[in-house]
Amino acid sequence: MIISSPSQPANLSGTGTTSSTSPLSEESVESDCNCAGAATAAGVGAGTGTTALMMGRAARQMQTPAMEAATSTTSSTTATTPTTTAAAAAAITTTITSRASLTRPASESELLVGTGTSGTSSSGGGRPGHRKSSLALALTPEDEPMDVYTRNLMDLKYPTVLPPNPQLKALLVFHKSDSICEVVTLACQRHQLDVTLVKSKEEALDTLQKSYATAQCYHLIIIDARSTKGLDAEHIARTIRHTHGHHLTTIIAVCKKSFFEKDDALIALLDAGVNRCIAETTNLAMCSVELKQILHSIIRPHNVMSTQQALYTALHRLKEVVLITDDLLRIQYANRATERLLNMRLDEIISKPLADIFVSDLSTISEQGKSIKEFDGILTVRRKNQEGIPMHVRVVPVACIGSAPTHLIFNFDIPGGGMDFIATLPQPKEAPRGSLHSVRRCSFDVRSIASDGLRRTSLAKLTSLPLEAPITKIINLLSQVQENCSADEARLIDKVLEFLKREGLYSPQMKEIRTDDPIATDLIGALLTGPSVYSSRRSSNDSIIRTGNSTRTAIVPAKMKANPIVMELLEESLSWDFDIFKLEEITDYHPLLYLGMEMFRRFDVFATLNIDENVCKAWLAVIEAHYHKSNTYHNSTHAADVMQATGAFITQLTNREMVMDRMDEATALIAAAAHDVDHPGRSSAFLSNSNNPLAILYNDLTVLENHHAAITFKLTLGDDKINIFKNLDKETYKSARSTIIDMILATEMTRHFEHLAKFVSVFGSEVEPRELVQSEEETSILMRRMLIKVADVSNPARPMQYCIEWARRIAEEYFMQTDEEKQRHLPIVMPMFDRATCSIPKSQIGFIEYIIQDMMHAWDSFIDMPQLITCMQINYSQWKKYDEQGVNTLADIMAKQPPVGNKPSNSK
Ligand SMILES: Nc1ncnc2c1ncn2[C@@H]1O[C@@H]2COP(=O)(O)O[C@H]2[C@H]1O
User: Which one is catalytic: 634, 679, 752, 755?
Assistant: First the structure.
């Protein structure tokens, strides 16, 4: 493994050089301070470039008590730096150096980081104390004396991953260039710091931002804190400290001497993120010494720490299992391989007593009262599921603070080697789960499907496009939550993620059909699934269905309003127990025309569309004429029934002050009137199975509903005399058309649960609907879809007598389809709907239980029409009774009914 910084090749023995000599000065302080650490100081820089390697999760977990041991001088105050531990550094150093190093005695594991004095106090040949003179003279690598190389052997052993000669950069934030500022600048220059001077907070942040963009980091920031008039040093320090990439930047505050008499101002600065406060001085020597101490005691350790993030990352990604405990054998660090081995997430591992993850007795490693020993042998590890795995474990005690071992490094592999074994164990999924990347990987590998170079390139470009969908964002957010939650919660979120990654988020997973009743299964299956399941067998016979091409002649009764019986009946046209069958009868099978005109009049549709009543009358007549009288269910009486329910719902919405605007009312009524126009009396599945031209035209997708919507507009726009939209302006027409199409398409049953789920999720939530959807228009669309859906299948919630008649009609239509399928040797879409054997009560019980019940409850909670629920429950009980009594066939049931057209008994 080689680690290098972007600007420097991997070169741990690095040849030191000073690229420039000090421009200073007669006031040299070289002799005053112990400059043995000069090379060290020169070699400290760093690191942000190197730390471009991401700090891993494990590394973040390592941030325990701060290790900073910087010395403070009499005139300075130093803040503790909240960074990584010496223990971690030692562990990392030890691990990365080599496996062999695990056998080294603990005393050797001392880290070559820390105080300036550690460098300065060294003496003797080959140690840092010899750097001073050599570095002062060295101009090029070749000029460097050999002792530099000797010293760097220590770096080889305990590398700090620092480039050898980084140019240290200082940012000076001084309101004005006075004598203090000048001295600070000179002192910086004396120590070869590259100085940038800025005069305001904004300029400072801007400079840092630019430096960040160009990977040119500032190692030192010195802020003028002498007065709050020019600059608010505390605020600047806090802002910088909280800016990404500056947690290890050294920040110094230059304060008035008087500040040092009381501690409050200085402590406020230190708490804001300043590392050290120094007293203002016009004495360059004093300032230079101060700066030198800062270089040794703060900047160097900071740089060491920042570059060690590369080591954390290396350790984190290691295939070998490494974990570190403290002296009480509590786990302090675990790498990713440990997570895999234990099948636990890091947050479950950290702080655990070591004994919890071993089945074996650990007394060989640590006996009460005795010192921690090295260990090399077999121990059995306990995984989360209690499974035990024997592992070869090596344990090395390390002294991080003082000379007694404080930490233990554990290194595992399976007996006989083969670390890939861990990869074969069942794993917790790794973060970032659900990232765009992982979602893509789940569905298909873009690269594997791109066979030629050209496609590969363009697909690669595609993956970099900003194509993140909202669902991906949701998945990513949940994945983030998952990283910090309990195992149980994580499992639940996993389940949620699994669903979210599926297509057709709102498509129903067909509810498990609890009933053992094959009739209900047949019916629900046929309604909720698309036609493709029936497409295997095809008949070569022509369909008997002729659709859509001939315009039927509409006969508009000349004096429709003159019929007093019709007029009287229509007075009740908004009540839930309106007798649609009587209307059918007394209008000679023109219920849509009469009911339609009544609705248009009541809801002011003529005015809304700015159209003559006669155009509307003609339109209704043509639409009605295109309903097939031969259909027992899908005829114009059903259309009139749906229109009547729509009128009743609009009225109730208005009563509840959930007002639809006039155009919304008009379009809802038009959609209801036309929603099944030219229905062939056979299902979409039948059309697909029989190669009907409509199924071919619409590719087996939403065949009937597409046809109803299309033919509505074809008929309407095809004849000026019936074009009810002709006076609308372009925009209004466009919007009306879109609403009508959307409502008609919403009656398709394969998307029943999708619409219901969306409606419930928006209107059933505590949250204001507007906050859950993107716009008011979207809320309105969901409401209109549900309105027409409920109206379309409201027959089981109508007064019982009507409910039974509708059940008879739909059953008869299903039977006719089955008859035809049999006759033409087509696949039988609902085999149980055979007139000889079918139980009507059972089919109705299934229909109510699986399709109607939830939807009616949702709609009733929204619109407040309890009679829907009352009727539905009475009807349900009646079907149950019939079922128990064995009243099954249409004939049985009809024998029990009073003739339709009489007022039902269970209405309000
Ligand atoms: N009472 C009922 N019993 C069984 N199926 C029904 C009943 N009412 C409506 N349906 C079905 O529900 C479907 C709703 O959409 P369609 O009008 O296209 O066709 C309808 C019928 O297939």
Answer: 634
**Rounded-to-integer distance, Cα 314 and Cα 97, Å:** 11
Burial class of residue 200 in the structure, from the number of CB atoms within 10 Å of its CB (0-12 exposed, 13-18 middle, 19+ buried): middle
Span from the CA of 706 to the centroid of ligand 1 (angstroms): 17
pLDDT of residue 765: 63
Does the pLDDT of residue 111 top 60, yes or no?
no
- The sign one gets for the Cα dihedral 663, 665, 668, 669 is negative
Give domain limits for the chain. 169-284, 318-421, 436-500, 523-542+555-896
192 is in an annotated binding site: no
| pLDDT surpassing 50 at residue 802 | yes
User: Could you tell me if 640 and 795 are in contact, meaning their C-beta atoms sit under 8 angstroms apart?
Assistant: no
What are 154-199's pLDDT values in tens digits? 555 666 666 666 789 999 999 999 999 999 999 999 999 999 999 9
Among 45, 94, 39, 40, smallest CA distance to 302 is for: 45
User: Is 318-421 the same fold as 169-284?
Assistant: no
Q: Is 604 annotated as a binding residue?
A: no
Pairing assessment for the beta strands 407-413 and 321-325 based on DSSP bridges: antiparallel
- ipTM of the assembly? 0.99
Taking alpha carbons only, the member of 275, 195, 292, 206 closest to residue 241 is 275
523-542+555-896 fold: Catalytic domain of cyclic nucleotide phosphodiesterase 4b2b (1.10.1300)
Q: Which two tokens stand for residue 273?
A: 């993120």
- The CA radius of gyration of the chain, in Å to the nearest whole number, is 41
Distance CA 294, CA 170 (A): 12
Nearest 5 degrees, angle CA 499-CA 426-CA 376? 150
The annotation status of 120 as a binding-site residue, yes or no, is no
**Which atom belonging to ligand 1 lies closest to the Cα atom of 705?**
18
The number of helix segments (H) and strand segments (E) in the chain equals 40, 11
Residue 634 known to be catalytic: yes
644 among annotated binding-site residues:
no
Asked whether residue 757 carries a pLDDT value surpassing 60, the answer given is yes
Beta carbons within 8 Å of 773's beta carbon, 6+ residues apart: 762, 779, 782
Residue 638 alpha carbon, nearest atom of ligand 1: 17
Query: What 3-state DSSP class applies to 425?
Result: coil
- Ligand 1-lining residues (CB < 6 angstroms): 523, 527, 676, 747, 749, 792-793, 795-796, 806-807, 810, 843-844, 847
Cα dihedral 356, 361, 362, 368 sign: positive
User: What CATH class does 169-284 carry?
Assistant: alpha beta
Among the residue ranges 69-73, 442-446, 849-853, the one predicted with the least confidence is 442-446
Predicted pLDDT at 342:
87
Rounded Cα distance between 293 and 296, Å, is: 5
Using most ligand atoms within 8 A of CB, pick from 527, 682, 750, 803 the residue to mutate for ligand 1.
Answer: 527
Q: What is the pLDDT of residues 380-411, one digit of tens each?
A: 888 877 777 888 888 888 887 777 777 888 88
Distance, CA 807 to ligand 1 centroid (Å)? Answer: 9
Residue 495 token pair: 């389940």
Least confident of 512-526, 855-869, 881-895: 512-526
Domain 318-421 CATH superfamily: PAS domain (3.30.450.20)
In this structure, are residues 325 and 405 in contact, taking their beta carbons and an 8 Å threshold? no
Q: How far apart are CA 887 and CA 878, in angstroms?
A: 11
DSSP 354-411: GGGGBSS--TTT--TTS----EEEEEEEEPTTS-EEEEEEEEEEE-SSSSS--EEEEE
The predicted structure's pLDDT at residue 415: 57
Query: Which tokens is 707 given?
Result: 């046809």
Please check whether residue 583 is in contact with residue 805, taking contact to mean a CB–CB distance below 8 angstroms.
no
Say how many Å lie between the CA of residue 804 and the centre of ligand 1: 13
